[in-house]
Protein: ARF
Amino acid sequence: MGKPSSFLDSLPSAQGTLHVVMLGLDSAGKTTALYRLKFDQYLNTVPTIGFNCEKVKGTLGRSKGQAFLVWDVGGQEKLRPLWKSYTRCTDGIVFVLDSVDLERMEEAKMELARTARSPDNAGVPVLVLANKQDLPGAKEPKELEKLLGLHELGNGHMWVVQPACAITGEGLFEGMDALYEMILKRRKLAKQVKKKNR
Structure:
């Protein structure tokens, strides 16, 4: 996977398939979210050992019809060192979060910060899918922003917290549209910087 050519950069929208990596702690609901996006139905899943990869299409807003190649990478602690290989040269990161599991919020914060701050991911837009919003005790997006320290990411990072429920599909397509908007914005900014530096 090389960098997109400068011809692609000059196009107004992100033509072709966008590469997106779906990360998060184990049991956050990544695979359930992926298959809900792919088939628009609930599939019972098992813990991911390794990764799943599916092409999904945006259905809302500007992302309607846009193809995303989504890599869903296992979230167990022993698999997290592999995340780095999947995020290299990616267009966007989807970080799936269990909005109810306060005990592991600090661990999620640490992993998200480590991923976002990696030099390979400088400026890569991050969509935080605040999953399990249907459960009692689910934290609101504003509260999750604080708990995850999103304002401290720095490095020109664009991010959005999208409340979601992977089982019903609520919020998932809105989240992908928000991610797409951030990807377009990042490309536009990169183009302006390129012009300025000529």
